[in-house]
Specification:
Strand order of the largest sheet: 1-6-5-3-4-2
Function: May play a role in fertility regulation.
Mean pLDDT: 90
Number of strands: 21
Strand content: 5-15%
Subcellular location: Secreted
Radius of gyration: 27 Å
Number of helices: 26
Organism: Panthera pardus
InterPro entries: 6-hairpin_glycosidase_sf, 6hp_glycosidase-like_sf, Ssp411, Ssp411-like_TRX, Thioredoxin-like_sf
Distance between the termini: 58 Å
Structural class: alpha+beta
Protein name: Spermatogenesis-associated protein 20
Helix content: 40-55%
Length: 762
């Protein structure tokens, strides 16, 4: 295969390919990258190069909308006034391509993607480029969050034929939907060593006319190779690999890539990757008395602390940005994703459970405070994301990070009151600037701000401990804590007057399932009923607005309408594997937090639907999409990487184990074994790519303890009907009574918490 370009230097939104789970490799469902890496081809395309963000002069956007104006997706609506004859993904576009014998230009992105915005402004608003796309191609626009199956299939092609991938993703297809050229971000015009989007279009148009048969043959050959390479199946294997061995190997691979000073598992850019932190906590739990166990705990806790102190955390409004562009967690890519908040809330609450340090519980509460304030919908659902870009002032062009950064002058004006008792003249603004590292020149390196948009501005990042800041000015630690919190609140109130970043008000079943888990787990750990209530409302939203009672199927998306209403596309977008897996996990977490058996009952029903729609009865494991929904796509994949979000198969393995524990249904244990066996080769080769699945494998091969607490002793309860042996258990002296059970054999009854703790630690 030939390449249209060579890899450019690394910059915001990119990462080097390696074994650690980062989310954008192998077409996973994260947003870890949103700019060009390479342009690849399966046919004899001329060589060229990727361009920088060269300015072009697009004409004033047409006022007449194209057909995307009828879509619900915020991302598609952002392109509704392009001078491009856009089609949404669907049969109408495919039929046109076949009838007119034209290649399909497929462009995939999402509404809060910075480089998607850039390409829309530079190229898709350009009249000449619009004519080329409309006359010589059938142009199709896809929101990757609505159609993760389309994104995964063609990202697999781009990554297999180049050194990486990212968004926007641009792929040229035959009328039969087989890819033959792919890339990511293109500038509009050529640079000295780089090829622009207009030139790429002209070359592909010419190749389609002159060498179409060769392109088709190469496309078929590449598709066949991808099909063989992406197959995940049990084959002749009967059992999965050793959990202890995979556990140890995964830990060693993480240990080798660990950053001792700043935490995390790469140089830069750095991503939160909660699946890694969850694995490390589980590894510590099963190796508490070993040096490696202590090491795993230290790695996870230090990473979480450094992240929380860094600029990747929004110290003013709480919540976490998508990733850090540097090793120190200092300068983030500023978009905020729902799935990050959901998983990090769980990670920080687990850190509090393990360490007892309220620093972590405070961070978890802050994350959920942000979600409740900024991402919650009146219906009980949760919106997808907030953009990285926003106008510095009303009427100005959006700039990345404008909402979040500060000048020294702004802080001095807002926090000018003197601090009593300090050893030198000091205002509360000077105290805050010292603690959070603000400087007159700004604390953002020019290399992290190539356009100079953030010159003289600062990202808040904790530079000193409270104790050191207090000692520096001769103040009491608690006084400093109060002064800093008061200062942050004033900045928060002042920031309300800035134009807010765009809110992607699309609501996804999968991410809402993760968020139900986030609120339920944190609420249970911290003993906060109000957080569990948020989880309950989220689950009610999913059942009311994203579940079809007649078919028993989940819907993938719904949208915030006017006046707090919820709207759906017509026809509805049905759920993918990740929607079922993440919602089932959320319901199980909510059941454990609330003890409301209705959530367990619904989880069982959804698991039955997932098995019916996605299970591979021949090869084991779950396909990412329904066979009917993905009809026409050249590949039907099983996601094999835990990245920014866990693989749905990894989560499903955990769900099957938990459901077997709740019901005793042998079929779910059998499916779990088949799933883990199907992924054996991937687990053996790169266990660090599937840390969440390694956790499930370890849990499956260990004898798990169940803690049963009889609060009301009702033998007719739902759980008692599922597990008949529970009917033999009784409460003692009309008190809440606990039993610790293994393989449906239970301990003597326990009524004292200290006795239960002692038994669990044996």
């Amino acid at each position: 295969m030939s390449h249209l370009s060579s890899p450019p230097p690394k910059h915001k939104g990119e990462h080097k390919g390696h074994g650690l789970p980062r989310g954008s490799e192998r077409g996973s469902s994260s947003r870890d990258k949103d700019r060009s890496v390479t342009v690849s081809s399966s046919g004899p395309m001329p060589a060229g190069g990727k361009g920088s963000r060269t300015n072009c002069s697009p004409s004033t956007p047409q006022k007449v909308p194209n057909r995307l104006i009828n879509e619900k997706s915020p991302y598609l609506l952002q392109h509704a006034y392009n001078p491009v004859d856009w089609y949404p993904w669907g049969q109408e576009a495919f039929d046109k391509a076949r009838k007119e014998n034209k290649p399909i230009f497929l462009s995939v992105g999402y509404s809060t993607c910075h480089w998607c915005h850039m390409m829309e402004e530079e190229s898709f608003q350009n009249e000449e480029i619009g004519r080329l796309l409309s006359e010589d191609f059938v142009s199709v626009k896809v929101d990757r969050e609505e159609r993760p199956d389309v994104d995964k299939v063609y990202m697999t092609f781009v990554q297999a034929t180049s050194s990486g991938g990212g968004w926007p993703m641009n792929v040229w297809l035959t009328p039969n939907l087989q890819p033959f050229v792919g890339g990511t971000y293109f500038p509009p015009e050529d640079g000295l060593t780089r090829v622009g989007f207009r030139t790429v279009l002209l070359r592909i148009r010419e190749q389609w006319k002159q060498n179409k048969n060769t392109l088709l043959e190469n496309s078929q050959r590449v598709t066949a190779a991808l099909l063989a390479r992406s197959e995940i199946s049990m084959g002749d294997r009967q059992l999965p690999p050793s959990g202890a061995t995979m556990n140890s190997r995964c830990f060693q691979q993480l240990d080798e890539g660990y950053d001792e000073e700043y935490g995390g598992f790469a140089e830069a850019p750095k991503f939160p990757t909660p699946v890694i932190l969850s694995f490390l906590f589980s590894y510590w739990l099963s190796h508490r008395l070993t040096q490696d166990g202590s090491r795993a705990q230290q790695m996870a806790l230090h990473t979480l602390k450094m992240m929380a102190n860094g600029g990747i955390r929004d110290h003013v409004g709480q919540g976490f940005h998508r990733y850090s562009t540097d090793r120190q967690w200092h300068i983030p890519h500023f978009e905020k994703m729902l799935y990050d908040q959901a998983q990090l809330a769980v990670a920080y609450s687990q850190a509090f459970q393990i360490s007892g340090d309220e620093f972590y519980s405070d961070v978890a509460r802050g994350i959920l405070q942000y979600v409740a304030r900024n991402l919650s919908h009146r219906s009980g659902g949760f919106c997808s994301a907030e953009d990285a870009d926003s106008p510095p002032e009303r009427g100005m062009q959006p700039k990345e990070g404008a909402f979040y950064v500060w000048t020294v002058k702004e802080v001095q004006q807002l926090l000018s009151e003197p601090v009593p008792g300090a050893t030198e003249p000091l205002t509360s603004g000077q105290l805050l600037m010292k603690h959070y590292g603000l400087t007159e020149a700004g604390n953002i390196s020019p290399s992290q701000d190539p356009k100079g948009e953030l010159h003289g501005r600062n990202v808040l990042t904790v530079r000193y401990s409270l104790e050191l800041t207090a000692a520096r000015f001769g103040l009491d630690v608690e006084a400093v804590r109060t002064l800093l919190n008061t200062g942050l609140e004033k900045l928060f109130q002042a920031r309300k007057h800035r134009p807010r970043p765009h809110l992607d008000s699309k609501m996804l079943a999968s991410w809402n399932g993760l968020m139900v888990s986030g609120f339920a787990v944190t609420g249970a750990v911290l003993g906060l009923e109000r957080l569990i209530n948020y989880a309950t409302n989220g689950a009610k939203f999913l059942k009311r607005h994203m579940f079809d009672m007649a078919s028993g199927r989940l819907m993938r998306t719904c949208y915030a309408g006017s006046g707090g209403t919820v709207e759906h596309s017509n026809p509805p977008c049905w759920g993918f594997l990740e929607d079922y897996a993440f919602v089932v996990r959320g319901l199980l977490d909510l059941y454990e937090a609330s003890q409301e058996s209705s959530w367990l009952e619904w989880a069982l029903r959804l698991q039955d639907a997932q098995d019916r729609l996605f299970w591979d009865s021949r090869g084991g494991g779950y396909f990412c999409s329904e066979a009917e929904l993905g009809a026409g796509l050249p590949l039907r994949l099983k996601d094999d990487q835990d990245g920014a979000e866990p693989s749905a198969n990894s989560v499903s393995a955990h769900n099957l184990l938990r459901l077997h524990g709740f019901t005793g249904h042998k079929d779910w244990m059998d499916k779990c074994v088949s799933l883990l066996t199907a992924f054996s080769e991937r687990l053996r080769r790169v266990p660090v790519a599937l840390p969440e699945m390694v956790r499930a494998l370890s849990a499956h091969q260990q004898t798990l303890k169940q803690v049963l607490i009889l609060a009301n002793g009702d033998p007719s309860s739902f759980l008692s009907r599922q597990l008949p042996f529970l009917s033999t258990l009784r409460r003692l002296e009309d008190r809440a009574t606990a039993y610790v059970c293994e393989n449906q054999a239970c301990s003597i009854p326990i009524t004292e918490p200290c006795e239960l703790r002692k038994l669990l630690h044996q």
